[in-house]
Amino acid sequence: MPGAAFSPDMVKTVEEAANTLQLPHKQMISGAFHDALFLARVCALPISPAVMIFVPCRDGLSHNEAEYVEPAHAVTGARVLLQAATVAAS
Asked: Domains of the chain, with CATH numbers?
């Protein structure tokens, strides 16, 4: 299945949230078939734009039984999500 681009507006909102929180960030391409891939394809309407926020995993392992996220990284990801959702809702 070919990939899908996420909402440019939501990508910008998440980047601005990271900037507001003075957090380093980068855009990434995910090779995994996340639910967000299907949302981006099916829900391309402005009512439900899709975007993903990644946090670092120990040893870079993701989608693996050994995957582990430091609690501080999980909190940081939640802070970015909250900031982005607050801006998107206003």
From this structure: 8-89 (1.10.150)
